[in-house]
Specification:
mainly alpha, two-stranded antiparallel ribbon
């Protein structure tokens, strides 16, 4: 195979794709432009290709599976979005924003989202772990160890 990698545009090195929807003799089974430089790029392509097929077949878009904490952080961004949009002007449609105005809104949202997550994690004694109950979290991993080490002498000389 020759040509450029479909993913990163480097020279292809023998990794390709055959489309199993077509019979072996059908030339559509071996798209010439679906070639790759490495297994990594080939895997990236197949992930994207699979997602595209899933959205076409089911007519749905893949969504982020946000946790309750992330959803709360997203809601917390509404005020930051409103303030940024208010500075630009609510009468201006989003499609008419300049690049600088759009970047201002994006910066406000991303900054507030990050701050909200940070604030939540600072309030929590440990970061949340899916599938782990609070009782299972080890707070002090050295709690069962003795305070003194066997090779050290106790305070005040000999035992």
């Amino acid at each position: 195979m020759s040509g450029k990698c479909w993913v990163c545009k480097r020279q292809a090195r023998g990794f390709g794709h055959s489309d199993g929807r077509f019979k072996i003799a059908d030339p559509r089974r071996y798209p010439l432009d679906w070639v790759f430089c490495s297994r990594r790029c080939q895997d990236i392509f197949h992930t994207l290709y699979g997602r595209r097929l899933a959205t076409e077949e089911r007519g749905e878009t893949l969504m982020v599976d946000a946790s309750e904490i992330e959803i709360a952080a997203m809601r917390d961004c509404l005020k930051a979005f409103g303030e940024a949009a208010g500075q630009i002007g609510f009468d201006k449609p989003l499609g008419a924003y300049s690049e600088a105005e759009a970047m201002t809104v994006i910066d406000a949202i991303v900054t507030r989202y990050t701050e909200a997550l940070t604030e939540h994690h600072e309030r929590a004694s440990t970061p949340p772990l899916r599938g782990v109950s609070p009782a299972e979290i080890v707070r002090d991993p050295f709690a069962d160890l003795k305070d003194d080490l066997p090779w050290e002498e106790p305070q005040g000389g000999k035992p």
